[in-house]
Automatic annotation (TrEMBL):
It holds the Pfam family GGDEF. It comes from the Bacteria. Residues 180-314 form the GGDEF domain. PANTHER family: CYCLIC DI-GMP PHOSPHODIESTERASE PDED-RELATED, CYCLIC DI-GMP PHOSPHODIESTERASE PDEF. It comes from Candidatus Accumulibacter phosphatis. SMART domains: GGDEF, REC. This is Diguanylate cyclase. Residues 15-134 form the Response regulatory domain. Gene3D superfamilies: 3.30.70.270, 3.40.50.2300.
Length: 380
């Protein structure tokens, strides 16, 4: 049995460094993470750098995108970390609290920021981002330090989650440098536990192998197919824009739905669901956050009855906060009109005149007729 890691041992909680000149900001972040992680605070980049050099227990950094931190700003801290002679510091995950200055965000990304979080992020999302970043860092360390270690799943021969996360990180890094899209699909059997209870573990493993084999014949050579968790499989598809990826997900779902899979002469009623995430549509720039979002959308699809694809903008409104109007407009401009209506269904009739004004002045192509109809239908 492998030795427990810091993330598996309750007595050894991962330790997070929070760097921000504002005591209030540091306090807010501490309140969000203190139940799950140990922490250390520093008020400037120089103090953060010294802490990281001395304190080997620090596993992740949260730092504001800022040019005003005294002594050493966030750009300088990132530059020192990514050019350090110590591998531990070169590879440490750094979550940046995004700035309203997009140029500052771009600089931070170019200097090696691992991920970006909003200043008003809630506890559940922040904890999920930290957990994903730590897991990715751990996977990269394992593969780097033990290249001989088996990175293939014993049942299917596909890459394990550790290897898949590394592939995803590489694809995202390349995409950001070349301003190209990356899509991620995570798919799994609907009603998996009931299927296993009724037919047994051996049959489920065999179905999993067939599912993996079918997917392997469908993906491109440049795509990465591997395990995500349990029976769920994931595809990392570099260069694939969101509409094409969603269409591909539906083709996979339909192909499996019509497959004639029988046990003892009896055809099994099987279906799969797929969660889709994409950069730039989802405005996420890290592999961990995209994988987590795709997994959340898979769960949403399964909870909604299964045999469906949940992609950008399609999460049921009861399970997500009301999206920002600016995001919906960005989706329209990017050619994703079908994703806009689910984003705007929370709008009331009182807001529609404002949208009509925007349409007259800016010619955004808002689907106003459909929105009016949907809004009236909901009221009745």
């Amino acid at each position: 049995m492998p030795a427990p890691t810091a993330m598996d041992t309750p007595q050894q909680r991962p330790r997070i460094l929070i760097v921000d000149e504002s005591r209030n900001v540091r306090t807010q972040l501490v309140q969000l993470i203190r139940d799950q992680y140990d922490f250390r605070e520093e008020g400037d980049g120089e103090g953060g750098w010294q802490a990281l050099v001395i304190d080997h227990s620090l596993q992740l950094v949260i730092c504001a995108v800022s040019i005003s931190i005294p002594l050493l700003d966030s750009d300088g801290l990132l530059a020192r970390l990514r050019s350090s002679r110590l591998a531990r510091l070169r590879q440490i995950p750094v979550l940046m609290v995004a700035s309203n200055d997009e140029e500052a965000n771009v600089r931070a990304r170019a200097l090696g920021a691992s991920d970006f979080i909003a200043s008003d992020i809630d506890a559940s999302e922040l904890l999920a981002r930290i957990d994903s970043a730590l897991r990715l860092a751990q996977a990269q360390n394992v593969l780097r330090e033990h290249p001989e270690r088996d990175t293939q799943h014993p049942d299917t021969g596909l890459p394990t989650r550790q290897r898949l996360e590394v592939h995803a990180a590489q694809a995202i890094s390349y995409a950001l440098r070349h301003e190209s899209p990356v899509s991620i699909l995570i798919m799994g059997f609907d009603r998996f536990d009931a299927l296993r209870d009724e037919h047994g573990e051996d049959l489920v493993k065999e179905l999993h192998k067939r599912f993996a084999s079918m997917l392997f014949t469908k993906v491109r050579k440049e795509d990465s197919l591997g395990h995500y968790s349990g029976s769920d499989l994931a595809v990392v598809s570099p260069g694939t824009p969101y509409p094409a990826c969603e269409a591909f997900a539906n083709r996979l779902r339909e192909a499996f739905a019509v497959a004639n899979i029988a046990v003892h002469g009896k055809r099994l009623d099987l279906s799969v669901s797929v969660g889709v995430a994409n950069t730039p549509v989802d405005r996420l720039n890290s592999a961990s956050s995209l994988l987590t979002l795709a997994a959340q959308r898979l769960k949403t699809a399964q909870q909604a009855g299964g045999n469906r694809v949940v992609a950008c903008g399609e999460k049921p409104l009861s399970q997500q906060p009301a999206p920002r109007l600016g995001h919906a407009i960005d989706l329209i401009k990017a050619g994703h009109e079908n994703a806009v209506i689910p984003h705007l269904l929370h709008l009331s009739k009182e807001v529609l005149p404002f949208l009509e004004l925007l349409e007259r002045e800016l010619k955004l192509g808002l689907p106003l007729a459909e929105l009016r109809k949907r809004t009236l239908d909901r009221e009745h």
